[in-house]
Amino acid sequence: MIYGEEDKSKYKIEYNGEKFSKDLLSYKVIVIGRYGVGKTTIINKLMGKVIDKEYAPTLSIDIKNIQAKVNDKIIQINIWDCCGNDKFARETPQLFKNAYISIIVYAINDKKSCEEIWHNMLNEHSYESIIFLIGNKSDLEKEREVEIKDVETFKNKYEDDIKIFFETSALYGNNIDKLLDNIAISIYEKNKKEEDQLENSIRNSITLDKR
Question: According to a count of CB atoms within 10 Å of the terminal CB, is the N or C end of the chain lower?
Answer without folding.
Answer: C
